[in-house]
Amino acid sequence: MADHTPYRAIVIGGSLGGLFAAAALREIGWTVDVYERSVNELDIRGGGIVMQRDLLEAFRFAGIAHGPQFSVPSRDRQFLDASGAARFRQRMLQAQTSWNVLYNTLRTGLPEGVVHAGLALSGIEQDGARVEAILSNGERARAHLF
Ligand SMILES: Cc1cc2nc3c(=O)[nH]c(=O)nc-3n(C[C@H](O)[C@H](O)[C@H](O)COP(=O)(O)OP(=O)(O)OC[C@H]3O[C@@H](n4cnc5c(N)ncnc54)[C@H](O)[C@@H]3O)c2cc1C
To answer: How many domains would you assign to the chain?
Structure first.
């Protein structure tokens, strides 16, 4: 959604939580800037994640599109012992996704210029209903929500 309301939010941290918050706020019309202290993309951080119904509902709420390759079905869980030998198998129909798939889906769903990599929050100043973020490069960013 384009930036239509006069409301501006600043999100600190461009990982899963921050990107989801940014997508959800944009979906209801807010202007959002995300500041992430890491200069690198974060898509090497995580492992597998069970795709619970809550996750799909959250993505729907935030208007985040995802394709059929978003998850793979799994039928069983296997429990291994310390040597790696299979000890127990349990029937459990689930869909599996991964941290990286979630991150990349959220990250590419945001337009250029929303995520500012390599900038950390170093301070906050509040003045009535407005908040000002002080960033590691000395810049200040104002917002209604922080
Ligand atoms: C190595 C690792 C692997 C994991 N793998 C999985 C997994 O496979 N599945 C799973 O469910 N969970 C996993 N987790 C748990 C993980 O905590 C969550 O999946 C998820 O990353 C939490 O998201 P978040 O946005 O709340 O926090 P985080 O991912 O911790 O993100 C916080 C972000 O804020 C940034 N930040 C912090 N302070 C500032 C500042 N002052 N200014 C700017 N930016 C700042 C950080 O750089 C960071 O990118 C893993 C955790 C780790 C550490």
So the answer is: 1
pTM: 0.86
CATH number at residue 29: 3.50.50.60
How many whole angstroms separate alpha carbon 75 and alpha carbon 62? Answer: 29
Task: Give the Cβ contact number of residue 22 at 10 Å.
Answer: 25
Ligand 1, CB within 6 Å, residue ranges: 12-18, 35-38, 42, 45-49, 99, 120-121
What is the per-residue pLDDT across 60-77, written as a single tens digit (0 to 9) for each? Answer: 999 998 877 889 999 999
Q: How far is the CA of 85 from the centre of ligand 1 (A)?
A: 32
Full domain range(s) for residue 39: 8-64+100-143
Distance 90 CA to ligand 1 centre (A): 30
pLDDT for res 4: 59
